[in-house]
Amino acid sequence: MEVVFGESLSLESSKSVIVIAATAENGAKFVEDKLKELFGTTIPDDIKDFLKDLDYKKIESFSIVAKGSMKEIIIVGAGKKESITRAGVEKLGGYIFDNIKSKEADISVFNNIENNVKFKTAAAYLASGISLKSWTFEKYKTKKNPQKIKSIKCQTQYVKENEEEYKALKAINEGVFLVREMATEPSNFMTPDQMREEAKALKQLGVKVTVLDKKDMEKLGMNALLGVGNGSDKPSYLIAMEYKTDNAKEKIALVGKGLTFDSGGICLKPAHRMSEMKEDMTGAAVVIGTIKAIATQKLKANIVGVIGVVENMISGSAQKPGDVVVSMSKKTIEIDNTDAEGRLVLADALWYAKEKYEPKVIIDFATLTGAIEIALGHEFAGLFSNSDELCEKLIKSADFVGEKLWKFPLHPSYEDDIKSDIADIRNTERVRGAGSITAALFLKHFVDKNAKWAHIDIAAVASDPRNRALSQKGATGFGVRLMNDFIKKYYN
Ligand code: BES
Ligand code: MG
Ligand code: ZN
Fold first, then answer.
1. Which of 135, 189, 308, 351 shows the smallest number of beta carbons within 10 Å?
2. pLDDT score at 388
3. Best CA proximity match to 111, nearest among 148, 147, 79, 71
4. pTM of this structure
5. Domains of the chain
């Protein structure tokens, strides 16, 4: 959908739907003034009556079909000004989309938010929210539901500021859409080879892409990653993506779990919900989507993305419970459960990132544990880190964009749970409980002690069985907007 910003909007099109987003403060007056503009001088009595009872303190929508002009007018409460944030305005855009999605129309959006808050770009945030919420995946439907909304015109007194902001938001949202698309694609399409192609597509944006195949990884001793792929007919890859501009700040590494399918291996998952495991590559997709967003905006930054791309399957050559592998770090790992495969792939991906790129800041994204869904549901992603300072920054960015992070203890007292009788470490906890923490502690063994590291467990936020403020049910693209803000604020 096309988005334009203008100081004044012409409302001639008979197919236009008018949206007026109004704050609690001055909202009634603003709506009245707008309607006066629309109807000429006087507002019809029935509409006047209708307006009297509207309350803009809550986010709520009210709909009027204006007789005569036959224009549909949707008035949306935007809340009290002191509680309005950019993330909130974006979510309001998602809410507006739900109220207009069935209308085949050009949408004209007016708001008085920009007069009541400290930022000038409420219009851009509304448009971004509408766009984020409008994303659907119809590739495999032979009968497609075309996008009904053709264009969005936003009225603002700050045209230039909104155009600029929207340009950035559009680049970010395209990163989000890429993650949703990759996660939603079934595993017979989104194979390791296809993931490699998605990464390679970043070359167009000036990103250097390096692909390590099985032979390369064998030479480096990446047996933890390779072991997971042993049962699959499909190849395994480690892919590095480097984006670096002149005068960039400190280097930052993003590492992602890219299981294109996780059957559980010999420790086979139950059939119920197994199909969701096509999304087990979402961490890697977040890395690709973030780099895409950053590179499209041409931000000054120095980022390296490292993803381990593997399929966890069963065959005569599949890894077995009780096996021991020697990781790239030389640490030996007992495979107690072949379904705890993400940490094995990440062990080598994290170590490779450390050895090859020596980053002082490293953040990994992974759909790592089912336990995180038990702990936090689909609201917060789990945050685990060796640096309080890094956590603080990440949480700030998360709050800013409206993607929530909750910090867990990465306490050494849980270490005993991942001790092995036969090897240095084992890939599951001995005692039931705290599965997300022990998984994070496992990863910590493969991270440079002198680097600031954060692990973000997105197993339950990557996808939601319900509609959310900015996404339909299914893949959310969680992480891209967060990382984009984090990099923009602290590493740009
Ligand atoms: N990919 C799963 C985690 C997962 C579960 C992601 C549900 C999304 C939704 C991961 O590989 C896994 O299987 N983890 C196991 C670990 C256990 C065997 C220690 C789990 O969480 O059950
Ligand atoms: Mg698994
Ligand atoms: Zn997995």
1. 189
2. 98
3. 79
4. 0.98
5. 2-157 (3.40.220.10), 177-490 (3.40.630.10)
